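**Fold tokens**
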Amino acid sequence: MNDNNTQTQLELERITTVCALNRFSVTAGLDTTQTQRKQQLETKLHRVEAALHRLAQGCYGLCLECGSPITPERLAVIPYTELCYGCQRRLEKTILNPYVV
């Protein structure tokens, strides 16, 4: 995926996420599920904006944990991902079972 396509895809992700968040701003008294969804969207927006920043800095597509290139297939599915597959798996294992060293 070239930089123009990547930027376009990330901008589209940002716009759709902002639009989804705007729906919550007009809704008063969010229930727990709505609050959780709003938090997920805010996190996604932050990650998309961080990916756009990495793209502008020339380091988009590199894992923030180990520095290895993230596969194009992974970036095509999750263009705002920050971690390669291996580092993501290690993180998930740590979260699921924090006592395993």
Summary: The helical segments are 3-25, 32-57, 72-77, 85-96.
